[in-house]
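To whoever picks this up:

The nightly regression suite flagged Permease as changed. Nothing in the input moved, so I suspect the structure step. Input below, exactly as stored in the fixture:
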Amino acid sequence: MQSHLGKGVLFALCAAALNATIGVLSKVLMSSGFSSSSIALIKTVVGCLLLSVLLLFLKRPLRTAKWFQAAACAFLGIFVLFHFETSAYRHYAAAGVVVILMASASISSILLGRIVLKDAITANATVGAGLTIAGIAVIFGADLEQGFTLQGALLASIAGCGYGAFSVVMKRMGVSGGLHFTRQLLFFGSLYLLMPAATDGFIMGELSLVAVMALLALAALPTILGFFCTTKAIEHLKPSQVQALELTEPLFAALLAFAFLNELPRDTLYLGAGLILCGLCFSNELIRLGKKASLPSRA
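Regenerated output under the current build:
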């Protein structure tokens, strides 16, 4: 049990760190003239192609294809997340979108986990989610009211609920994560993302060396490795635990922004980081409230 918990925590934290690169790399591409919907499509298509080539060289035995499961999970975890998140950025400031998206992902995974997986909603999970969401709100507090619109908040909520549902549905279907399943996710995700890219107009920016490197990094880091780590984390943890651990993404994003964009973190980062880490201690029962929580559902 402890081995499964340790592996799940490691995979979820790696996913958060990898996903934190999206902001920095996307800024590079947007400054080169790429539209957000085009970036989402290109990184998914390139990720699928790179992974296909890698699997050819690795010569790993192909497991039984789970196309229906991959199609359902890709719709929630790639299309709903990417499309509605991108749409939310048009109506609300980035900081507000991040907070609402992550909060809704965490809350939806807890509620859907109870309904679909029969996971108990424990005091630990509730307090942990509350503290972690509060930590993110503190980090972005100064920017939350900038450009607020109800439409933007609603779109961000839909994106977050899609991501929360993705982890629950994957757990319910009993799908094993891995490189082959990640490729199937990216394949269906590419098909889904063709629709918003075509609607917005496929806008390609300047293909400079920097832009090409940023696209390859987006395809390899948050797209291939990010989804691989998330799917592996779901194998070992409850969806609510995975979502809680991935709420550390703003901390990794702040470190990357400081390292590569020379953006100094605000003082609120430290208080927010403390709340997030405290919340994770509750979510993963390092600090326990009440009686011992039940084991994760194997449904």
